[in-house]
Amino acid sequence: MLKGEVIAVGTELLLGQIANTNAQYISQKMAELGVPIYYHVTVGDNGERLKEVIKQAQTRSNLIILTGGLGPTQDDLTKESAAELLNLRIVLDEPSFAKIISFFEQRKTTMTENNKKQAMVIEGSEIFPNDHGLAPGIAVQKEGIHYIFLPGPPSEMRPMVDRYFVPWIKKQYQGHIFYSKVMRFMGIGESALEERIVDLIEKQENPTIAPLAKDGEVTIRLTAHASTENEALSIIEPVENEIHHRLKNHHYANGEEGIEEVVFHLLDRLQLTLSAAESCTGGLLGRQLTRISGSSKVYKGGVICYNNEIKHHILHVPIEILDSKGAVSMETAEILANENRKLFNTDLSVSITGIAGPDPVENKPVGLVYIGISEKGKNTVVKEIHLSGSRTFIQLRAAKYAYYYLWERLKERLT
């Protein structure tokens, strides 16, 4: 099995002038393939320090991926430092050099001598063409360790990873295929989710289990390597079933389908209609739903009741409630949901009122949100949640939680 490490080369990374998005991208791609990345290291444009970092990587990794330092200037030292450490020569790759010459000829500019440096590669290496730049990527193996050299600019590195490096990785596993399945969860944080399945994570081998928190929800990517897709599915299935059993109240879907799409399909299947009264989210819930083709079958519309005048005059929240309990309160959320359902004559209505920030309101903290769900013939339910983060993130999570509570309500009808 490959054990990966990413070494990002560039003094600008250490100075904080740019973010190390390359390491993130590579790790994501490797996780999809079931190749673990155990270390991220950043080092400046210094040959001696770079060699020390590579020496350390050799003691613990058999896939060492280096990004940056392949350009034409004096401080681009990655290939040269690695070649010296590996006791290998630097040689000219003629196709890469021809591409560089052609590049300058087409632009009718003079190629300086140092541009030839970009076509120099480590002897015995496999070349990854650079479709968006001049310096090729290279792969070389010595004493059981694979060394990968990729350009630093993300606009060059990402397409090279997708088009050449990922197929190269798959070639190392000849006779095996990689198959991934994504499980999606809402209403639980990454740390709480991980705590429920920590024993599975600790003993993972095949399939690998990769949790990821993103945009107010958590996903788990299960990746198996096997001889056939059916074999991979059979490896994934028992782990998937066990995770679902432990987290069934939060596991809302598999694949790339978002929570709003799941709710739409449930509403459509049950032939129910929905409306929304949104304060702090400003119409975000409705926007997310109406991006789905066919959403008019289930979503009648909504009121953006951002200030108290609209809450009172359009959705009939009494002034006494707004004055005594506040616009951000359980009582207001309940009335908004009930009155909005009547206004639109829908089967269900959801209300969202809260404080997205940056400042507290009504002596209540930023991140306090109330979500009400009104349904014909049933008691209205109001949920209180406490969110953190930026204003935009609180709004996004509030809308997603509203969908989560709708999902909880709708799936009850299917049991």
TrEMBL record:
Domain MoaB/Mog: 5-172
Range of residues in the leader sequence: none
Stated family: Belongs to the CinA family.
Protein name, UniProt field: Putative competence-damage inducible protein
Gene this protein is translated from: cinA
